[in-house]
Structures are given as C-alpha cells and as structure tokens.
Specification:
Helix content is 83%, strand content 2%. It contains ten helices and two strands. The protein has helices spanning 3-29, 48-51, 53-68, 71-77, 80-106, 108-112, 116-132, 134-148, 151-161, 164-203; strands at 38-39, 44-45. It comes from Fusobacterium hominis. One of its GO terms (cellular component) is endomembrane system. Keywords: Membrane, Transmembrane, Transmembrane helix.
C-alpha cells in the first residue's frame, strides 16, 4: 500500500470518526437544548426534554403511581404505633393547655369546686374516649388523603416546575460516563463506515 492510499485511508477513517462523534455529541446535547423553541422558518427546533417536559411528567407520574408507589402504599406504610403515640401526646398537650382554662372561662362556678384530681379524671375520660376511636380517626384520615390528594398532579406539577438547567446538570452528573461512551461508539462506528467505504472504493 503506497503512502497516498495510507493518507486517503486515514482521512476517510478520520472524517468518518469525526462525523460519528459529532453526530452523537449533538444528539445528546439536543436532549436538552435549545431550551426554548427556535423557529427556522422551514422547521422548528427545540430540545426533546424541554419540548415534551409536561408529557414526560405525566408519564412519569403514571408509572410511579401504578408501578412504583401510590398514595395508598404511603398510607399503608405509616407506622400506626408512632401515629398513636403522637396522637396521645397532642391530646395530652391540648388538654393540659386548654381544659382547665376553658372550664374556668365557660363554667366559673364549676371551676370553684374543681380540684386537680377531678381535672385529671376529666382529662383521662376525654383522652380515653378519643383513643378508643383512634383506628377510626386514622382510617378517616387515610381515606381523606386517598380521595382528596392528587398524587399524580403533585408529581406533574413538580416536574413542570423543575429547572431545565438543573435537570440537565443532574442528568450529566449521573450519566456522564454513559454519554461519553455513546460519543466514542459514534466515533468508532463512523471510523468503521469510513474504512468500509475505503475498501469498497478499492474494489470498485
């Protein structure tokens, strides 16, 4: 093989590798950019994620809700023991702060005969009455969440509000190595196509 053919081979393979690398590099960039639609007259150009951000958010919310985690799953995963403990503490705090003062305010004559032991007994009766129905209260709260909280809507809203710049930065941070591999693969395939073209040119 003479020097002219070697140079020709290197040029064709090099150009093919360059085209393959640039093509994949631009394709990766166009996942995110341009952020805003650019009207070129004949056609419009915009990054895939900016253009379909809302649709992606809806699809993501649908997948999360149906396949990964739903509001019902979250409710069912809550530790009822912890909820009961917190409920008991809230009831104690409310009764300690309010019961005595409310009785004095609304029933001043009764307050004159109300000892601390009697007040404690009243608190205990009220507290036990509430805690006896704790399961119903928790179930009512859970049912309210399931029926009234738009879990999918929250996800879509948060995706819509998510900064495209931040999304791009996070994606590159997580997939930087994989993106680089795609660029390299493009260069390798381009070089291979260039080599095949060179061989075909020799045979024709």
């Amino acid at each position: 093989m003479n020097i002219e053919l070697v140079i020709r081979l290197l040029l064709i393979v090099g150009i093919g590798a360059g085209i393959g690398w640039v093509t994949n590099y631009v394709a990766i960039k166009m996942l995110f950019r341009p952020y805003k639609e650019i009207n070129l007259g004949i056609f419009k150009i915009q990054g895939l994620l900016p253009k379909r951000k809302h649709e992606i958010g809806e699809s993501l919310a649908e997948i999360i809700q149906q396949e990964l985690v739903s509001l019902k799953d979250i409710v069912n995963s809550m530790d009822k023991t912890v909820i009961e403990d917190k409920m008991e503490k809230v009831i104690d705090d409310m009764l300690d702060q309010k019961l005595g003062s409310e009785i004095k305010k609304n029933f001043p004559m009764l307050a004159m005969f109300l000892s601390s032991d009697m007040l404690d007994k009243i608190k205990s009766i009220i507290k036990n009455s509430i805690l006896e129905n704790k399961d119903k209260i928790i179930e009512m709260f859970s049912q309210y969440l399931e029926e009234n909280v738009d879990f999918k809507g929250i996800i879509v809203k948060n995706v819509d509000a998510f900064s495209l710049e931040k999304l791009e930065a996070v994606t590159y941070l997580l997939a930087k190595r994989e993106f680089k591999h795609i660029e390299v693969i493009g260069a390798v395939l381009g070089a291979l196509i260039g080599f095949i073209q060179f061989v075909i040119g020799l045979l024709v």
